[in-house]
Design brief:
Structural class: alpha/beta
Number of strands: 30
CATH superfamily of the largest domain: Glycosidases
CATH architecture of the largest domain: Alpha-Beta Barrel
Radius of gyration: 24 Å
Helix content: 10-25%
CATH class of the largest domain: Alpha Beta
Number of domains: 3
CATH topology of the largest domain: TIM Barrel
Distance between the termini: 39 Å
Shape: globular
Number of helices: 9
Bound molecules: alpha-D-galactopyranuronic acid
Length: 558
């Protein structure tokens, strides 16, 4: 729950829908007899729109019992959205994985029309670019939440903290700073801002001018640290009070922990942590990218049963509820921006760098209170040898650190550039993520010495924790062979049997994420992949275990 005082409605359910409008259509063109579609949903997961790439329009009405200020928040629309309220353009957003919202003041009682134009066509001016190894599902893929807000309301809040431990190893004290943004669409007025963490509350009386203002509060309290074994979370409420009555509130949850690096190690609360993880796309044959909570829960259960404690959200910000589950279960997360295979020209085109910077800020602003998220990953396998890419990376790393100095910054490079000593981007990172495909995109079958050699070469080049962010092999479910042929479960299983012990034994390796958890759809221009899927899942598309799953589980847990 994100509020107790606001009247909140989830606009889930059936919306009117059409894919029949021209690219330059306006709200007035919405047909009188449209189709319908569920929200949230990825339209390509439905047979009728499986092949639809381009724009689509959504429409629904909302009825307000009284005149009200209304905040409408879209958790994600893939990939571009324009939102109209009663025919008036209210907000535009680009990027399919981060939220956006608008506030409409003083809406009259009665019926209003909400219209959304969504677009999942990709081009050379979108992030991601047209060719990716994941599918460009379209639609209102995450929830839409409507809530009424008073004239003076909390826009946002940001908690930052330092932790100090008792010298005798006793409890930890958190010194917390809360930055609360307040909006006032009326005249100047007085309010008390109250911040409650667990059972500790601080209050400050402030005069709120018309428009936007920020209030800073400080608070100190003993806390239990968030750890993998004991992921303690605290409820946070930020409230506005008028004459001791709460007139607005927003809620969140937070966990307190420190993430640092030391030499080759990544430390959680000052202790080295062995990160053993998996890459996970939001994909499922029935749901596409719009996964129900049940799928997220079950995926996490399978992941943890295999002895894994870390997830790389390849290659984009995941549903916030997935991060909630990781917070609760004590699973560490790397979140990433969808800069996939960009080169210097791509970064220079249109406003792709500014747009990515905005996505980065949106991702951090949405997820900054999740203790599970320990690193922001800026890019994946970009042309890291090019000066333009190094400059863009430097810029993004600076923005990430300025926006949030409590997490690590990284990016995923590729074995070839690192091997040749040509990577110019990893120097901007706190730890080096490297994707390695020895034993798969090579002529020779997998062998331990390919990997030991590779890890030695990276360690020579980068004096920081090394994180093998991708390694894996394709396997068609059910395919078993005597000769351990590529594309068989047998080969994939042997791949992990060979590579995992090497990674586990190497002191320069702070962690790894297997490529990948489940089989997923590739983009429409399939990258010569059987079934147009990326078949490197250790479980299949329906999450049935492949032989490799059992191998990984055995190697990590027995
Ligand atoms: C790359 C990329 C992944 C996936 C993988 C593969 O490393 O980062 O998204 O495409 O290769 O399966 O080849």
């Amino acid at each position: 729950d994100t509020t107790e005082t606001r009247e909140q409605r989830h606009l889930d359910g059936t919306w009117e829908f059409t894919t029949a409008l021209e690219a330059d259509a306006t709200p007035a063109d919405f047909p009188a007899e449209p189709e319908t579609i569920p929200v949230p949903c990825a339209w390509n997961a439905l047979a009728d729109y499986a092949d639809h790439h381009g724009s689509a329009w959504y429409r629904r009405t909302i009825t307000l019992p009284d005149c009200a200020n209304v905040r409408v928040r879209f958790l994600a629309v893939s990939h571009e959205a324009i939102v109209y309220l009663d025919g008036e353009r209210r907000v535009e957003h680009s990027g399919g994985y981060t939220p956006f919202e608008f506030v409409a003041e003083d809406l009259s009682a009665g019926e209003h029309e909400l219209l959304v134009r969504a677009e999942n066509g990709r081009s050379e001016t979108t992030i991601p670019l047209p060719e990716t190894d994941w599918f460009d599902y379209g639609g209102i893929t995450r929830e839409v939440v409507l809530e009424t807000v008073p004239n003076v309301y909390i826009d946002d809040f940001d908690l930052r903290y330092d932790l100090a431990s008792d010298p005798d190893g006793g409890r930890t004290t958190a010194r917390i700073r809360a930055d609360v943004d307040v909006s006032n669409c009326d005249r100047e007025t007085d309010r008390t801002v109250a911040v409650t963490i667990g059972e500790t509350t601080v209050r400050e009386r402030v005069t709120v001018p018309a428009g936007k203002t920020s209030v800073e509060l400080a608070l100190e309290r003993p806390v239990d640290r968030w750890t993998l074994d004991d992921p303690t979370l605290y409820d946070v409420t930020v409230a506005l009070e008028a004459e001791e009555t709460v007139v607005d509130d927003r809620r969140d949850r937070i966990g307190f922990r420190e993430v640092t690096v030391d030499g080759r190690e990544i430390l959680l609360n000052g202790e080295p942590v062995d990160l053993r993880g998996v890459n996970r796309h939001e994909d499922h044959p029935e749901w596409g990218s719009a996964q129900p909570l049940r799928v997220m829960r079950e995926d996490l259960a399978r992941i943890r049963e295999a002895g894994l404690n870390c997830i790389r959200c390849s290659h984009y910000p995941n549903h916030p509820r997935f991060l909630d589950l990781c917070d609760e279960l004590g699973v560490l997360v790397i979140e990433e921006l969808p800069y996939w295979h960009f080169d210097a020209d791509d970064f220079e085109r249109a406003d792709l760098l500014e747009r990515g910077e905005r996505m980065l800020e949106e991702m951090i602003s949405r997820d900054r209170h999740h203790p599970s998220v320990f690193a922001w990953s800026l890019t994946n396998e970009c042309a890291n040898e090019q000066a333009g890419v190094a400059e863009a990376t430097d810029h993004l790393a600076t923005v990430a650190r300025e926006t949030d100095d409590s997490r690590l910054v990284t990016l995923a490079s590729y074995n070839e550039w690192v091997d040749r000593g040509e990577d110019r981007c990893l120097e901007h990172c706190d730890f080096a993520c490297v994707n390695g495909y020895y034993g798969w995109y090579t002529d020779e079958p997998v062998a331990a010495d390919q990997w030991t050699g590779f890890l030695e070469r990276i360690a020579d080049r980068r004096d920081c924790p090394i994180f093998v962010s991708e390694f894996g092999a394709g396997a068609i479910e059910g395919e078993r062979t005597w000769e351990r042929a590529k594309w068989s479960e047998t080969y994939q299983s042997e791949f992990f049997e060979t590579v995992l012990p090497v990674l586990l034994a190497d002191d320069s390796v702070a962690g790894f994420t297997i490529w990948q958890f489940c089989d997923t759809r590739t983009s429409r221009d399939p990258m010569s992949r059987p079934k147009s899927k990326n078949n490197k899942g250790i479980v299949g598309e329906y999450r049935r275990p492949k032989a490799a799953y059992e191998t990984v589980r055995r190697l990590l847990t027995e």
